[in-house]
């Protein structure tokens, strides 16, 4: 218990030590992931030299992607983040300061990130919107706390309905005729969210030998993808709001480093479940 008063008394030093520790963790994780991906890349290069690229099957190439691309991309992003944090820590001025962008999010980026992440991106989407709404409406509500409520059964509807309603009110204040129906969209979102969570539990609970009409992964992916439709409706209204409230600011069209990590890792997950999905679709589609 004597440690905490000492830390508080020397908070600037403790804060610097914490920053250094965080940078070190980023570097270690980045190097470890790079070594992991590099090892499999070297093994594949040697195998290509021995048997030739033509001997590689589609499933083998998918496995290579899963073992090589995500670790290497994670390595690059983590190391770049560590360098950026180190420059800030040492007090260096960035040569090219961050450009100011609009809060708007292109629909294609939202759709891509939501589908590829299997619906997990929605939590960051909700968190980010709360931060933007706090700034626009001069509120001091905790974005982290409300995002946590999104994953709790009894508070899920209240959390999402509150944000959708506030977006609708902001649209009215911005002189934009909004077509949002907060209550109806909240009901659809909550139902699909519970189906996604239930599908995730089913994917782990159902034994592999259990006879089913479709892959267990689809019980999770179908509602996760359907949620994207709800997010697109709300994001369209948000884009109109930020277009009026932030005139002149460009909309970021390129993916950020974190979003590239989501895409590469999410693609790896999709490749893992793709064989079951293709097998299921093969029974429905004419050959």
Task: Report on the architecture of this protein.
- The protein contains 10 helices and no strands.
- It has helices spanning 3-9, 11-51, 58-90, 107-116, 121-137, 143-150, 156-173, 182-205, 216-245, 257-282.
- Helix 5 packs antiparallel against helix 6 (143-150), helix 7 (156-173) runs parallel beside helix 9 (216-245) and helix 8 (182-205) packs antiparallel against helix 9.
- It has 287 residues and is an all-alpha fold.
Which characteristics define this entry?
287 residues, mainly alpha, 10 helices, 0% strand
Task: Offer a quick outline of the entry.
This protein has 287 residues and is mostly helical. 75% of the residues lie in helices and 0% in strands.
Write the layout of secondary structure elements.
Elements lengths: L2 H7 L1 H41 L6 H33 L16 H10 L4 H17 L5 H8 L5 H18 L8 H24 L10 H30 L11 H26 L5
Helix pairs in contact: 2-3, 3-10, 4-9, 5-6, 5-7, 6-7, 7-8, 7-9, 8-9
């Amino acid at each position: 218990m004597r440690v905490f008063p000492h830390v508080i008394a020397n908070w600037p030093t403790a804060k610097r030590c914490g920053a250094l520790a965080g940078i070190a963790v980023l570097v270690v994780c980045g190097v470890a992931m790079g070594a992991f991906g590099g090892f499999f890349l070297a093994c594949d290069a040697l195998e290509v030299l021995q048997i030739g690229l033509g001997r590689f099957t589609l499933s083998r190439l998918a496995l290579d992607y899963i073992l090589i691309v995500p670790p290497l991309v994670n390595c690059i992003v983590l190391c770049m983040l560590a360098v950026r944090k180190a420059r800030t820590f040492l007090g260096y001025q960035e040569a090219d300061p961050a450009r100011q962008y609009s809060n708007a999010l292109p629909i294609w980026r939202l759709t891509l990130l939501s589908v590829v992440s299997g619906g997990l991106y929605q939590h960051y989407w909700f968190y980010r919107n709360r931060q933007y709404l706090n700034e626009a409406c001069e509120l001091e509500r905790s974005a982290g706390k409300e995002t946590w409520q999104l994953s709790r059964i009894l508070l899920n509807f209240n959390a999402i309905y509150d944000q959708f309603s506030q977006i609708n009110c902001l649209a009215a204040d911005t002189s934009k005729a909004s077509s949002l129906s907060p209550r109806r969209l909240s009901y659809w979102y909550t139902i699909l969210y519970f189906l996604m969570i239930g599908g995730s539990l089913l994917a782990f609970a159902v034994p592999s030998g259990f006879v089913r009409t479709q892959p267990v992964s689809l019980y999770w992916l179908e509602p996760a993808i359907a949620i994207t439709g709800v997010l697109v409706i709300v994001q369209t209204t948000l884009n109109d709001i930020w277009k009026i409230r932030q005139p002149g600011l460009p909309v970021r069209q390129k993916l950020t480093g974190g979003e590239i990590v989501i895409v590469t890792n999410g693609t790896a997950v999709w490749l893992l479940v793709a064989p079951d999905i293709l097998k299921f679709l093969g029974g429905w589609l004419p050959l």
